[in-house]
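Consider the tokenized backbone below.
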């Protein structure tokens, strides 16, 4: 066996090594505890953010295809049957109804049920709608908005010509009532 050179170890250097390693263990345990606490804190913040987002989404609401189809079926039936009281029940008191392609002689923006009622009365003098196709519904993900595509047929009252219209409507619903309705239609059909 070979003789190995041994380093002299004294108690003082040994106690410094143990003291240093004790502090190192304490530091590492403190860091580990800090990481665990930080992780729990971040998890709690993430839950609060998720809860806030879910709360805001539930306040805004979402709409299903079935709900959108029901709204549009009631919308088209009530217009066709001139049940304007029932039609207006579909809308929030402060509804915003837009006609982006309306000609200058017709309004492009209606605010509130009263303005919508006046518009319906005016439409009665322009056209008579006999039928609508079943709307094709496109529901926006996680929102209260849907798009409806449908056609309407009737008569232009001024000259008796056929009224054939294609509609694309962007509809926003809140608390079961329509709060915004953007009606894209071809003004040349009049």
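A designed sequence for it:
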């Amino acid at each position: 066996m070979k003789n190995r050179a041994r380093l002299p170890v004294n108690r003082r250097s040994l106690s410094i090594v143990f003291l240093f390693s004790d502090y190192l263990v304490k530091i590492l345990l403190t860091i580990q505890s800090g990481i665990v606490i930080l992780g729990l804190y971040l998890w709690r913040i993430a839950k609060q953010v998720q809860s806030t987002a879910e709360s805001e989404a539930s306040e805004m609401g979402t709409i299903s295809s079935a709900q959108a189809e029901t709204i549009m079926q009631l919308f088209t039936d009530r217009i066709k049957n001139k049940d304007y009281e029932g039609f207006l029940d579909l809308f929030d008191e402060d509804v915003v109804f837009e006609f982006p392609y309306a000609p200058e002689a017709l309004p492009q923006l209606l605010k509130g049920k009263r303005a919508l009622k006046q518009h319906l009365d005016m439409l009665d003098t322009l056209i008579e709608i006999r039928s609508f196709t079943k709307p094709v519904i496109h529901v926006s993900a996680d929102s209260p908005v849907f798009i409806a595509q449908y056609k309407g047929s009737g008569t232009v009252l001024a000259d008796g010509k056929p009224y054939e219209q294609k509609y694309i409507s962007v509809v926003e619903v809140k608390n079961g009532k329509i709060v915004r309705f953007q009606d894209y239609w071809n003004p040349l059909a009049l």
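Confidence is low (pLDDT under 50) at residues 52-58.
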